[in-house]
Amino acid sequence: MTLTLEERKKRLFGNHALTVTPFKECGELDEESTRKLIDYIIEQGVHGILTLGSSGEVFALTVDERKKYVEIAVDQAKGRVPVGVGVNHSSSDEAVLLAKHAASVGADYIFTCPPYYHPHREEGVYRHVKHIADAVKDLPLMVYDGGAGIEISLPLLKRMADTIPNLTCAKLFLPYPQKIALYNGATEGKVQAWAGHDQMNFQMLLYGAQGMTTIASCVLPKEQSDMFNLIQNGQLDEARDIYYKKVCPLSSIAFCNVLQYIQCYKYALRKMDIIASDKCKVVMEPLDNCRKAEMDAVLKFIGVI
What we know:
Blueprint: H1 5-10, E1 14-18, H2 31-43, E2 48-51, H3 63-77, E3 83-86, H4 92-104, E4 109-112, H5 122-135, E5 141-145, H6 154-163, E6 167-172, H7 180-187, E7 192-195, H8 201-206, E8 211-214, H9 221-232, H10 236-254, H11 261-271, H12 289-301
Parallel strand pairs: 1-2, 1-8, 2-3, 3-4, 4-5, 5-6, 6-7, 7-8
Helix pairs in contact: 2-3, 4-5, 5-6, 6-7, 9-10, 10-12, 11-12
C-alpha cells in the first residue's frame, strides 16, 4: 500500500539508528553483514533507520555502492520501520538522481545537508534543498542544520518551511542544543526538531526534539529507544540513568577522536558479532591497539561484550 506524504510524516519520530556501511576485508560491500545489522537494530526496538549519512562513510562511497546499500536496507527492513536515505552531495543534480533512486526502491524519507566544498550563500542552500524536495514531492525531507559545517539560520528554515511542503524535519548538529527549542516557533510547527549530535542528543531531547539520529543506536538500539520513550513519558530520572550508564560512556570514548568514531563503532559491532569485519574505506585510518583497548574496556563496561 502506498502511503500519502502526510501518512509518511506521521511515521517519523523517535530513535533512528544511523547505520554504518559494512565492508568485506577485500573492500566490497558486505550484504550479509548489512542485513544482519538492520535486523538487529530493528528487533531491538529502533523507531527508524537513517542510511548513508557521515556515519555510513557516504563521502567515500561510489554511486553504485550508495544505490546498492539503499536497495539492501529497504529490502531487509521490509516496512517494519521507516528507512531514510542520505543524498548528500556537492552537486544538486547528483543529489536529485540519488533521491529519485531511493524513492524508486521504497525509501520512506530523504535526508540532505547543504551543498559543500564550494561556499554558498543562503540563497544557494535554499535552491539546493528545494531542488531535491521538488524531485521527490511524495517523500518527507529531513534537512541537516550544521552538516558540512553550514548552519541553517532560523529565517532560512522558516522560508523553507513556508515554501517546501515535504520539508518535515530539521536535524541539529551544532554545539548549542537550545536551538532545538526555537525550531517550532520559527516554522510555526511545520518542521519537526530532531537531535543529531551523539554527545548532545539527551540534552536536545530535553529541549523538545521529536526524534534523534545516532550511530550509537547501532550498538545500543534498545537503550537509546528506551531513553527516548522515557523522556517522552516524563520519566527523566530513568532516562538519565540510561544516558549516564550506557550512552555517555560509549559516545565519550568513540568520539574522543572524532576522526575515528566510525572505526570505533565498526570495531564495536565486529566485537559484538553483528558485522563480520570492521573494514573501512581507504581514507579511514585504522584503530591502533591503544584505541582498541579503550573500546574493549567501554564495551565491557556497558555490557555488550
